[in-house]
Write a structure and sequence with these properties.
Helix content is about 25%, strand content about 30%. It is built from 8 helices and 20 strands.
Length: about 450
């Protein structure tokens, strides 16, 4: 099988050498920069880990050395590690960032919250959502920068997200998990309000109220909880996966990074769904390859870079002959029955802060401002409420659950300033009130 793969690579290299001539010197289609400038440890947000501690969230930025373009496309990468390990400096995302920075992209490799309370679906599902929330905060970070200091000179009309393994799972859920009702059933055996307690689908990891819109998604050995979360009109996808992947399934199987976790739909199932709903999916199959083959094999990495490059060319409107044609010839996949849900839970938000929404859950909030404590009186005496306090940047300061009619919010060690008190009930209703501690 390796012999067949190498022969194909050589043939493609020979065949592409002539066609690529039309793109020599074309930014994004070829390497037009020789150097890459990397800046590590840039803080883009913070949030509470699964253990209850606050983690500062950082990213590493890769820029083409000497680039003077005023608005540059961005790829945000998420590393692998089964949501229990890995960093922004992992070799595969570091290599991808260097390779695409030389083509003229700015790349950001993010650190996100890792760690699970238990190595099963009860622990893994919240871990995926925490990673999604953090990646959204990182994208919002660049929108905020563009609207304020414009330090990084990002073209916010061309932001792409990509990931490897767990990072690919993260970016797929970022784009295709759009409704709270899609994920709520996974929490049914835990508590109906667990998603709300986690901070919802968007989270509070920072840069609240700025856009998290992206133009494309790159999944390298990823999977979705349910294939049906991809719907007509969704973003085009670039997806690559090996048929012999025993960690993240190529089809529908159990995710197994050493221990069996839960069933998920891998790249082959997602591709079948993309055909059914007419969503563009540039899909490449590594026949006989295992998990993340590009991480330790230069030939696989070259294939990966070329295929992703072709996908990005299409999204950027660049006409160039493909260096790595798509290959989805791995048989068919049978889709199981799935009924989409349509319920959404939103709150009103602007860059100036979270606005009051659905005030019905509050009977009274007093005194406000306060120098010591604030009393919260709920409008219903017969409901459990999830309480989340965040600061002006969106960083979660405190979360709690109350089944009482009254709740006391203590200032304690909090600094004086503006905060946002978010309350949700088990019916999914949400209220947000701005509060001030003197």
């Amino acid at each position: 099988m390796m012999k067949t793969y190498l022969s194909l690579t050589v043939a493609l290299a020979i065949g592409s050498a002539a066609t690529a001539q039309t793109c020599v010197g074309t930014r994004y289609a070829s390497d037009v920069f020789t150097g890459v400038t990397a800046t590590t440890g840039i803080v883009y947000g913070s949030n509470i880990t699964y253990t209850g501690t606050t983690q500062s969230l950082t990213l590493d930025l890769y820029e083409p050395t000497g680039d003077v373009l005023a608005a540059r496309p961005l790829i945000v990468w998420a590393h692998g590690g089964s949501f229990i390990g890995g960093t922004s400096a992992d070799a595969d995302v570091d290599s991808l960032s260097h390779r695409f920075a030389r083509k003229g992209y700015v790349c950001a490799s993010i650190n996100y919250r890792i760690g699970v309370a238990s190595f099963d679906s009860l622990g893994m599902i919240p871990a995926v959502l925490r990673a999604v929330q953090d990646m959204k905060a990182s994208v919002r970070f660049f929108y905020k920068d563009r609207a304020t200091t414009n330090t990084y000179k990002i073209d916010t009309n061309n932001i792409y997200i990509g990931g490897s393994s767990a990072g690919a799972i993260t970016v797929l859920h970022y784009v295709y998990l759009k409704r709270t009702c899609q994920i709520d059933p996974y929490f049914a055996h835990i508590t109906a309000t667990s998603l709300t307690k986690l901070g919802g689908l968007d989270g509070y990891s920072g840069n609240q109220c700025y856009s998290d819109k992206v133009k494309g998604v790159i999944s390298l050995c990823g999977a979705l909880g349910v294939y049906g979360w991809m719907e007509a009109g969704d973003l085009p996808l670039c997806s690559m996966h090996g048929t012999a992947d025993k960690t993240v399934p190529y089809g529908r199987a159990i995710v197994n990074p050493g221990l069996p976790i839960m069933y998920t739909d891998g790249s082959r199932m997602i591709y079948q769904q993309s055909l059914a709903v007419n969503v563009q999916n540039n899909f490449y199959t590594w026949i006989g390859a295992g998990h993340v083959p590009y991480a330790a094999n230069a030939a696989y990495m070259d294939t990966t870079v070329n295929f992703v490059r072709d996908y990005l060319n299409g999204r950027m409107g660049i006409t160039c002959t493909a260096l790595q044609p798509a290959d989805a010839t791995s048989g068919t996949a049978s889709l199981y029955a799935y009924t989409p849900c349509t319920t959404n839970v939103f709150y009103s938000c602007t860059p100036a802060g979270i606005q009051n929404y659905n005030e019905n859950l509050f009977e009274d909030v007093y005194p406000n401002p306060s120098s010591s404590s604030i009393n919260v009186v709920f409008s219903s005496n017969n409901s459990t409420h999830i309480i989340t306090l965040s600061d002006i940047t969106g960083r979660v300061i405190k979360s709690d659950i109350s089944s009482e009619a009254n709740y006391t919010l203590e200032k304690a060690s909090l600094s004086s300033g503006i905060y946002f008190l978010r309350v949700a009930n088990k019916q999914g209703e949400t209220s947000v009130r701005k509060i001030i501690f003197n």
